[in-house]
Amino acid sequence: WLSVAIEAPLDAQLSAYLAEIGRAHTGRGRGPVARVKARHVLATMSFLNTELIGVLGDAVGDRATLVATIAAWNKLLMIHLDLLLAVYASAEGTAHWY
Questions:
Q1: What is the overall mean pLDDT for the chain?
Q2: Which of 90 and 68 is assigned the larger pLDDT?
Q3: Is a pLDDT exceeding 50 seen at residue 5?
Q4: How far apart are CA 62 and CA 33, in angstroms?
Q5: In angstroms, rounded to a whole number, what is the distance separating the alpha carbons of residues 79 and 20?
Q6: Rounded to whole angstroms, how far apart are CA atoms 25 and 58?
Q7: Reduced 3-state DSSP string for the chain
Q8: CA atoms 23, 90, 75, 98: torsion sign
């Protein structure tokens, strides 16, 4: 997924790919044991965002470029997270999908 996040444009094909990842993580048809809890997906995104800040902080010397790059990554990851969690919400059909 992260390789695709780095390389793929934000388009309908990427949206479909992310929706499939979300469906797989909900464990549809395989029972609750196969399900990845949505809060773990959220925590993973948060961890990844924090790690990217550290990696980019070491790699990008110009502060303005660093801030712009971190902001862009944050927006991209939030778009991905929003789509993943939307799939979770629709799969669960309740307000308590998290």
A1: 83
A2: 68
A3: yes
A4: 46
A5: 15
A6: 33
A7: CHHHHHHCCCCHHHHHHHHHHHHHHHCCCCCHHHCCCHHHHHHHHHHHHHHHHHHHHHHCCCHHHHHHHHHHHHHHHHHHHHHHHHHHHHHHCCCCCC
A8: negative
CA separation, residue 48 to residues 6, 13, 16, 53, 77 (Å): 13, 23, 22, 9, 9
* Residue 5 near residue 21 (C-beta atoms within 8 A): no
pLDDT per position as a tens digit, 47-80:
999 999 999 999 998 999 999 999 999 999 998 8
Q: What is the pLDDT of residue 66?
A: 94
Distance between CA 98 and CA 58 in Å, rounded?
A: 34
